[in-house]
């Protein structure tokens, strides 16, 4: 089997459990694989498909993923028909060609979406074809308990039975025991052989940074410290994706947005730009990335914290899939978690409880002072030695340990305050009582008469919010979502008040500059750097050129690890090239000639002695838009109509109005604001902006404790600048 692996894929040995999985499938057994992102799941069915008689049917949830896999397989074969996609995007002629290639026995892997597999004509065709086995990729989509549930996956068992039962291999990167059981039961593979790999991605570096109002600047600084490297930035909203992508572009970073709101053609183009390295950075919602097999993503940034640790693990797992550098930076602000909590309001109680528990795990991860790798692995039921374990030093808490202090007395004071006020307030009013900030609500409650009033004035509100968060994470407190986040004592919290015990809290972390930590990530203990940088750059440029000629992503030609090895060993013949890791016979024949030629020329021109031990083997016109906006608002046209007439979004219109007002021009949108807010509300917000030392929307939102949404606060801020500043 190892010989075939070397011949077809250019690898000398299997990675992790791959060998055992391949043997199980080759023996015709149902097989269940739980293997982390980057663990090499696809090879587990690709190699058997190439070796077995017939065509393997691979069920995959995304067209992008299928295209990606097909490009990769075609890269190791001289025959393009070795792998095909069968979906609705094909013309009738293309569909007929795919079926002809399957019938003739050329095609070994057929990638289909579950929707395509349900079509009667496809079922009938496959009934008369020689199917070797079925591979169900991203199998967690089957389970209602999975984080990417796809109802159409639930019918796969019936379809497989209709076509003809053959061995089934199901693969996923994350599956709790409950999800695992649901998948096996639904596919009728309860007796399948189970292979579960370690969740530890030792080459990934985990870091959490505070999310400040300068987060865009921090991200730009980080990317410019890693120029030329591929990265993904995840945001929770489409609006933020668009804004951040545009900000990066105007700052000289080649970035593209990706979210489900873009039309299919644009999404495909932006994804291809990223895969083909025409764009260095993709800014995306979670709509991007599931199964995207780009091996050399060097960083994953979370602009917003995700809704669960499963999502965080999946998304960070798209970095460093080739075993090289992979930096995972998450920007954390608790107000983002509070926004996610609000989305749970009105949902069934059971769903609220699950959602809250998942969010608290995310908060615990963001605020923990322990080894982050240990935290992640513990979440997935795996133990880890944070001193000697693989990749133990690859996180910010280990590199820059946080100082801790005893907070038993402060926690008790916070809990006492919540108890004394009869569990009627959210976090902000509790911090106001402790620090002596008398708001209108607290005056009505006569909070100044409480024993706890101003008792915590030695610390600021931010400190007390942190104490309360840690009490929630430790389950001394819980939030009542139906009452919009009111804090309530748990049984453990009441016991803590009676018998306080040690409660250590980490101080705020201070982070080093990017320049100091840019080269900290290693691949299995060694940095992924080429021996000959000049040759490596030539090979990298050639890879892009060849990929463009062939119409495939650069990594489908040669991956960075292979280029590194070429730049170390200088292979000057196809026989030598095929023994470079990740090359093999097929790739050497298909792509190797120009690489061997450029290396030979480089070696001769620079009198290089080869290593002796190398064994042979559309933009709107801004000024016109400004005039139109001013004249239209003077006529009191609805803002929706103004945006519609210029084919821009409301978000883009409001942003443009902000630019106009901040540049010193008055704009009167009172008529629009008054349709949303009454006079007293407008006056209250205007008064806040007049007295506040910041116009930051998030700060205003927190101050008003969610009584006004950010859109209203933003509109009144425009009025404030127009009326007061201009």
Structure description:
There is one protein chain. This protein has 726 residues and is α/β, with parallel strands linked by helices. The chain has five domains: 2-196, P-loop containing nucleotide triphosphate hydrolases (Rossmann fold, 3-Layer(aba) Sandwich); 204-399, P-loop containing nucleotide triphosphate hydrolases (Rossmann fold, 3-Layer(aba) Sandwich), CATH 3.40.50.300; 404-506, Arc Repressor Mutant, subunit A, CATH 1.10.10.10; 533-605, DNA polymerase, domain 1 (Orthogonal Bundle), CATH 1.10.150; 622-725, Arc Repressor Mutant, subunit A (Orthogonal Bundle). Helix content is 48%, strand content 11%. Helix 24 packs across helix 26 (560-569) and helix 31 (650-662) runs parallel beside helix 35 (710-725). The longest helix is centred in the last third of the chain and has 22 residues, at 584-605. It is globular, with a radius of gyration of 29 Å. It starts with a helix and ends with a helix.
Element layout with pairings:
Layout lengths: L1 H8 L8 H9 L4 E4 L6 H11 L3 E5 L3 H12 L8 E4 L5 H12 L5 E4 L1 H4 L2 H8 L3 E6 L19 H8 L4 E5 L4 H11 L5 E4 L7 E7 L4 H10 L5 E5 L3 H13 L4 E4 L5 H12 L5 E4 L12 E6 L6 H8 L9 E7 L1 H10 L5 H19 L4 H8 L16 H4 L4 E3 L1 H13 L6 H9 L4 H6 L15 H13 L3 E4 L5 E4 L1 H8 L5 E3 L7 H4 L15 H18 L3 H4 L2 H10 L4 H4 L6 H22 L16 H13 L4 H7 L4 H13 L7 H4 L5 H13 L5 H7 L6 H16 L1
Parallel strand pairs: 1-6, 1-7, 2-4, 2-5, 3-4, 5-6, 8-13, 9-11, 9-12, 10-11, 12-13
Antiparallel strand pairs: 14-17, 15-16
Helix pairs in contact: 1-28, 2-3, 14-15, 15-21, 18-21, 19-21, 24-26, 24-28, 31-35, 33-35
């Amino acid at each position: 089997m190892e010989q075939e692996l070397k011949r077809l894929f250019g690898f000398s040995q299997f990675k992790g459990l791959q060998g055992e999985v391949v043997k199980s499938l080759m023996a015709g057994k149902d097989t269940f694989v739980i293997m982390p992102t980057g663990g090499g799941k696809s090879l587990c069915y690709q190699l058997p498909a190439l070796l077995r008689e017939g065509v393997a049917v691979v069920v995959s949830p995304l067209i992008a993923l299928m295209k990606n896999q097909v490009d990769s397989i075609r890269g190791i074969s001289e025959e393009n028909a070795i792998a095909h996609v069968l979906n609705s995007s094909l013309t009738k002629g293309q569909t007929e060609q795919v079926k002809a290639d399957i019938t003739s026995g050329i095609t070994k892997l057929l990638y289909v979406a579950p929707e395509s597999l349900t079509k009667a004509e496809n079922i009938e065709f496959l009934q008369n074809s020689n199917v070797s086995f079925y591979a169900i990729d991203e199998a967690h989509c089957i389970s209602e308990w999975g984080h990417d549930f796809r109802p159409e996956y639930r019918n796969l068992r019936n379809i497989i039975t209709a076509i003809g039962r053959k061995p089934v291999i199901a693969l996923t990167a994350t599956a709790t025991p409950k999800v695992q059981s649901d998948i096996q039961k639904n596919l009728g593979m309860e007796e399948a052989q189970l292979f579960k790999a370690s969740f530890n991605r030792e080459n990934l570096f985990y870091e959490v940074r505070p999310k400040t109002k300068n987060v865009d600047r921090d991200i730009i600084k980080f990317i410019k410290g890693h120029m030329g490297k591929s990265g993904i930035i995840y945001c929770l909203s489409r609006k933020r994706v668009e804004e951040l992508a545009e900000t990066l572009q105007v700052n000289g970073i080649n970035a593209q947005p990706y979210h489900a709101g873009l039309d299919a053609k644009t999404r495909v183009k932006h994804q291809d730009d990223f895969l083909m390295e025409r764009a260095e950075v993709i800014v995306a919602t979670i709509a991007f990335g599931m199964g995207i097999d780009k091996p050399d993503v060097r960083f994953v940034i979370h602009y917003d914290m995700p809704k669960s640790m499963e999502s965080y693990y999946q998304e960070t797992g798209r970095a460093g899939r080739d075993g090289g550098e992979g930096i995972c930076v998450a920007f954390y602000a608790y107000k983002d978690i509070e926004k996610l909590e609000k989305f749970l309001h009105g949902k069934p109680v059971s769903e609220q409880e699950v959602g809250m528990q998942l969010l608290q795990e995310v908060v615990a991860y963001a605020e923990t002072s322990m080894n982050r790798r240990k935290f992640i692995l513990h979440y997935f039921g795996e133990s880890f030695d944070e001193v000697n374990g693989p990749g133990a030093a690859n996180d910010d808490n280990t590199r820059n340990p946080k100082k801790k202090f005893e907070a038993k007395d402060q926690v008790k004071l916070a809990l006492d305050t919540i108890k004394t006020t009869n569990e009627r307030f959210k976090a902000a009013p509790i911090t106001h009582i402790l620090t002596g900030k008398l708001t209108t609500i607290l005056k009505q409650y006569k909070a100044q008469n409480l024993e706890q009033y101003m008792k915590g004035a030695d610390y600021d509100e931010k400190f007390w919010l942190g104490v309360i968060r840690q009490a929630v994470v430790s389950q001394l407190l819980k939030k009542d979502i139906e009452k919009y986040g009111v804090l309530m004592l748990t049984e453990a919290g009441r016991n803590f008040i009676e018998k306080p015990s040690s409660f250590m809290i980490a101080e705020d972390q201070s982070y080093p500059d990017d320049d100091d930590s840019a080269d900290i990530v290693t691949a299995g203990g060694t940095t992924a750097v080429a021996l000959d940088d000049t040759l490596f750059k030539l090979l990298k440029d050639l890879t892009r050129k060849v990929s463009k000629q062939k119409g495939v992503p650069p990594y489908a030609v040669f991956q960075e690890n292979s280029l590194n090895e070429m730049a170390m060993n200088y292979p000057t013949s196809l026989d030598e090239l095929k023994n470079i890791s990740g090359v093999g016979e097929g790739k050497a024949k298909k792509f190797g000639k120009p690489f061997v030629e450029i290396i030979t020329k480089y070696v001769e021109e620079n009198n290089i002695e080869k290593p002796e031990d190398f064994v042979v083997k559309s933009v709107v016109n801004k000024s016109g838009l400004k005039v139109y906006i001013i004249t239209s608002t003077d006529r009191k046209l609805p803002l929706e109509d103004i945006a519609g007439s210029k084919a821009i979004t409301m978000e883009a219109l409001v942003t443009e109005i902000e630019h106009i007002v901040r540049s010193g021009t008055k704009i009167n949108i009172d008529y629009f604001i008054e349709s949303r807010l009454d006079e007293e509300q407008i006056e209250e917000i205007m008064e806040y902006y007049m007295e506040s030392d910041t116009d930051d929307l998030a700060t205003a939102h927190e101050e008003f404790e969610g009584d006004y949404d950010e859109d209203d606060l933003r509109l009144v801020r425009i009025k404030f600048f127009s009326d007061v500043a201009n």
